[in-house]
Amino acid sequence: MPLGGVLLFLLGGVLAGGVLAFVYIYAIWYIPFVYINFFLCLGFGLVLGGILMMLAKAGKLRSPTGVGLLALLVGLAAVYLEWSVYLTLLFNAETTGAGRDADTSTSFSASMWADVLTHPAAMWEAIGKINETGTWSLKGATPSGVFLALIWVVELLVIVGGAYWLARSQATEPFSEATNEWADEETLPHPIGYAQDADHVRTALETGQYHTLTPHEMQSETEPFARLKLHRAPNDGNCQYLTLENVTTKVDDKGKATQSTTTVVQHLAISTAAYEELKKRFGQLQA
C-alpha cells in the first residue's frame, strides 16, 4: 500500500464521488420516473467502483483488505456528498400552484452547498425531518418513517457496496513484487472441455496435471465449455498464473444469448514451461 497510491486513491475517489453525486442527484431530481432510481443508484455505485479500480491499479495498491477499507471510506464520502447536494436543491426549492398544477423549481447555490457540507449535525437533523414526511410519492403514497429509512439504507449499501466490491477485486490481481508491475491478462481463444467436477479439476491443476484440460469443439452456441486465462508480468519470468472458468450460455425467447461464468480456479501460480505449453495448446483456434 504505497503512500502515494493511497493519497491518489482517496483524493481521486472523493473527487469522482463528488462529480457522480451531482450527476446522480440531478438525475433523480429531474427525471420523473421513480422506478428507474434504483438503476441510477446502481450506476452510481458501479461507476464509482470502476474509477476506484483504475486508481488502485495506478497507485499499485495490492492489499485487498487495505483497498477495501479505503473504498468504504470513499463510498461513505460519496453518500455524504450526495446528501449535501440533495439538501441544497431541496432548501432552494419553490413550489407554485397546487394539486396536479403544482410545479417545483430549484437552483443550486454554491454558498449554501458549502454551508450544508460543513455542518453534518444540521444535515442529520434535516434528514430526520425529511424522514417524518417524505418528499416524493409512488402511486399516490408518500414513503416516510421506517420504510423510507430502509430505502435510504439500500441506497447506501448499493453505492458503498459497488465501490468496495470493484475496488477490492483489483487488489487481488496478480502483481510482480520483483519488477513492481501488474501482470497482463490474456484470454486464450480455444474453448476447453467443461469442468463437470470442479473440485477434481482444481486439485489436478494444483498438482501440475495440465493434461486434464482438453480442447473442446463447439457444436452449438448453447453448449457449456471452459475458458482459460493466463496472467504474466511483462518483465518477470517467474510471475505466471492461470484462471479457469466454466461458461454456460442461455438464449432467451428473442434469441439473445447470455453467458454466465463460474470460477473453477483463480490465479494459480504456474511455471514458465506450463505457461508456454498451455498457450501453445489453446492459444489459437484450429482452422
From TrEMBL:
Top-level taxon in the UniProt lineage: Bacteria
Q: What is this protein called?
A: DUF4199 domain-containing protein
Which stretches are transmembrane?
A: 7-29, 35-55, 67-86, 146-167
Keywords, ordered alphabetically: Membrane, Transmembrane, Transmembrane helix
